[in-house]
Amino acid sequence: MKVILKQDIENLGIRGDIVDVAPGFGRNYLIPKRLALKVTSSNMKMIEIERQALKKKLDKERLSYQELIEKLNETTISFKRKSGEKDIIFGSVSSSDIKDSLHELGFEIDKKKILLEDPIKRLGNYTVPIKIFHEDQAEIKIEVMKEEEGVQEEKEEKEKVEEERMEELAEEKMKESGEEQKEKESIQEKRKEKKEEPVDVKVEEAQDEEIKPERKEQIKEKEEKKKESKK
Length: 231
Fold this sequence. Notes:
Blueprint: E1 2-5, E2 18-20, H1 23-30, E3 36-38, H2 44-64, H3 66-73, E4 76-81, E5 88-93, H4 95-104, E6 120-122, E7 124-133, E8 136-146, H5 151-230
Parallel strand pairs: 4-8
Antiparallel strand pairs: 1-2, 1-3, 5-6, 7-8
């Protein structure tokens, strides 16, 4: 049974391809799901028009990926690994490592499209193909270099210094926060004292008022004694 594919189908073909399939597969799966059209002598003209339209659309999509392919072809990714005898590295460089590095460079590439047959386990330069669009591929350059002795220790030391610095900053911030809190409490205490001052003044004035009548009486007695002495 001949059909024209309307969608890309893995291990069968791409849009616009005319392929032979089992009758059951075509009638029960491809045609009902609108993945393909049956090719007959009566619809050959329509099929050809459909095929040309699909091919045109496919070429347009392929053209849109050319810029990405060109950028990837110019990309080199470097990895540093510790190595032993015969340049065999400890660990490996895998598809996941390449995917993560490409992500850091701004490329979003599916891991499955990185066509690395086996993880890289030796120092050296490699070329890794990446599937972009159907049969169109890009090739990136991979450079696996030896990690110099002491580099890891230096990295760890820098991380340690940075961590200590962050702790110091955190302590200083906490200290400043404590001083600010004390200052706020001091201000609040002063405000409280100022609010209480008018009450104390009123009490003192009331006490003065209580003393004044006694003082007046004393002055009156002295004046009367003076008058009697003059007589």
